[in-house]
Input
Amino acid sequence: MSLKKSILLVIIILLIDQISKIYIKTHFTLHESVEVFSWFKIYFIENEGMAWGTRISDIIPNISDRTAKTCLTLFRVVAIFGIGYWLFSATKKRSSKILICAIALIFAGALGNIIDSVFYGVLFDDSLNQIASFLPEEGGYDTLLHGKVVDMLYFPMYKGYLPEWIPKYGGKFFTFFEPVFNIADMAISTGFIMLIVFNKRAFAKRD
Output
């Protein structure tokens, strides 16, 4: 897989991700949802922390949310340069198509979420109890590096109380699949799954 094709894949995923996020941000209020199927909903939330809604302050005590957010965003920016170099190096070495495709997916997904974290606080106003507008005259809902990641894909395939015989969790209300995510998250997850499932083929040595 050539560098041009990998860049094209990144651009396509990035466009789909950002178009979907901008549409949701400018057409939905926060926590508004639309049922597409009984097992799939468009549900607008904003993620201020790490994966699965985890905050840095939950891991590192005595750190403010704003400082944690700044550190997380800067870490993501540094990481994207590392992933970009990995992608460039893999194409130059003519590594396997699976490896290059997986890295491109991870790079596109990471870049998509970084755009939210870095710029959305400046580009949009708040979505709480109102539909956000793009480039509001009074300014955005926060400063540079303090944007929130837009999530909207929700697959509550099962909701109900677990059987009593299940240890520890028996009788508790359970939702599968509970996390709300976006196209960028899907790209990152797909890339990592490809690296795990096709590990031998992805990192096969060329003659």
Q: What stands out?
A: The chain has a mean pLDDT of 89. The beta strands are 33-37, 40-47, 149-154, 158-161, 173-176, 180-181. The first helix runs from residue 3 to 27. The CA atoms of residues 97 and 180 lie 30 Å apart.
